[in-house]
Design a protein that fits this description.
Number of domains of chain A: 2
CATH topology of the largest domain in chain B: Jelly Rolls
Oligomer: heterodimer
Number of helices of chain A: 9
CATH architecture of the largest domain in chain B: Sandwich
Structural class of chain A: mainly alpha
CATH architecture of the largest domain in chain A: Orthogonal Bundle
CATH topology of the largest domain in chain A: Rna Polymerase Sigma Factor, Chain: A
Largest interface: A-B, 58 and 55 residues
Order of helices and strands of chain A: HHHHHHHHH
Radius of gyration of chain A: 19 Å
Helix content of chain A: 55-70%
Strand content of chain A: under 5%
Largest sheet of chain A: none
Number of strands of chain A: 0
Shape of chain A: globular
Strand content of chain B: 25-35%
Structural class of chain B: alpha+beta
Number of strands of chain B: 23
CATH class of the largest domain in chain B: Mainly Beta
CATH class of the largest domain in chain A: Mainly Alpha
Distance between the termini of chain A: 36 Å
Number of domains of chain B: 3
Amino acid sequence: MPNFENKTDERLLWVKFLDGDDQVLSSIYLEHSHSLFDYGCRFTNDRDLVKDCIQEVFCNLIKMRSRLSETDNIKFYLLTSTKREIIRALKKSSKKIYAEDDFDYSFELLLNKNIDQQDAEFDEGKQVALAVALGMLTDRQKEAIYLRFNKGLEYDEISAILNLNYQSSRALIHRAIEKLRSLIRLEEAKFTQVLLSMFTSNNKSVI
Amino acid sequence: MDKYKNFSESDFLDDHYFLQWLTYRSAEDEEIWMDFLKSYPSKVQIVRAAESIFNLLRVREREMNLPEQFELWNRIRIESVTSEKNVWVKLVKYAAVLICVFCSGALSFYLYQDKPIPVYNRVIGSVTFEDSTKKYSNLKALLILSDGSKIPLERQLSKISYNYSGNQLVVNQDTIKQEAGFNSGFLNRVSIPYGKKSIIELSDGTKVWLNAGSQIAFPTVFSGAFRKVELKGEAFFEVAKNAERPFLVETCDQVVHVVGTKFNVSAYPEDKFVQTVLQEGKVSLEIRDKKLLKKDHFIEMDPDQMIELDKESKEIFRSVVDASKYIMWRDDILEFNKIDLGKALKQIERFYDIQITLADPKIALYKLSGKLDLKENPEDVLNVIKLTVPIAWRKTNKNFKLTEK
């Protein structure tokens, strides 16, 4: 049973942690640390900042253990906390004053290193096209796609992290997929040239 | 599954179970979805299209490197020790342990070295093994527990056995209690130098025969979706059946996925090939291709098959073999069928911890067939080889020099 589906296991692990079991925390760290690190690195290039934030997240877990509630979704909890810490750190380091939800952060979705490429026709041309296509998505769309397809979060979880309602987060992802699909269809009609002309005329920079 | 028959591409991409299948590719899910496609072949194109989109949308994730991941954990531990004294009192003694060996998901091993080195630089495994000009192994025979304590393995054949909960293990005649504490998510490792062997029984009942010049790392207790161990060198596995938790053997160039089965993996860093031989059951080999833009691919194996992976070219050679011949090393017997003498000599070197040099490199290409009983001493073994191959040998200390006859 894949672990992100095994809600009972997750709940038990967490309960053990809340009860004072320390062994569990190292397992939780090992299970999630790389995933959180990758998520964090999409907001900033500063690896040290990302690591500091992960440290903050785990130390807070320990400090506030008695005040935490039960959950069957450690992954979601950790992702949310990590993002919160990162945004907080980015706000601080930017030295400006921001209103509560005002902060405009960027989200990076590198294309060139896609895993599991099944299509034999996944050539350089398509790579470039996709990079451009993803570059045309908004940061929110990119983050939504990432949370859905890399982290496997549900729409209600994505809404919570992105501060949107359920319908909006679904629509966000659907629109992004449509955009990508139409660009892939274009590929069949020698899209590379079309894309290049779009690229120069739109003056957008490729990722 | 019937509801899927009317799904469009977008519907699939919206569906939780569809995404779960593509993300984890568990054996169960594969079966369910393959059955679905067999019953509704008109959906194949749509499913494949949705799969393409999924693959495009899912990006490769970055990881911290090992020292980073370890050091971060250390910081977390230390900070929590200083802020919550009473809860963590029993952990203070762990903070005082000089070395905390730590390995997770990546491919390098940490081992002890004689010179003092800052903890996050102890990438000793790669220093020792990737130097292919070295004939001797600098490994010490050691079992390192998850809390960092070292247990030397004195015997020629060490037996290590973990109990189900991981809080107790037996090393040869001694029973050792492990505290299920802060570090038990961390790995244990066994290293066996040339001249020795080890049998390890893991907490899930899996048995591992570790050959000379090899290292293996594994958690005290398996948790999570997979049971994963990391191997450098050669080992034979008798995996305890657990369909819920596939067993993975990770080496530098490939990962073996099993459910319950018996197989041998030979992945010595100095060898050109990684060799996997299946005796019983079924495995999937995941071949890692480190070049960007190329996917990892999976190869299915049936019993009495051998897969050899050329580490450089990534070429794969499949052959049908008598698997039992490839695991006789467990009983100190080697059996060959027209093998290059050079390869045979390498195995003999590891077994006895001796050095064999060839006066003429073409000796390495002579073909050797037959059985060698390694319970004899190396001189007798070389004499047996002399019967079928035109060589002469001469010994100085631990060095054997072979010349053409």
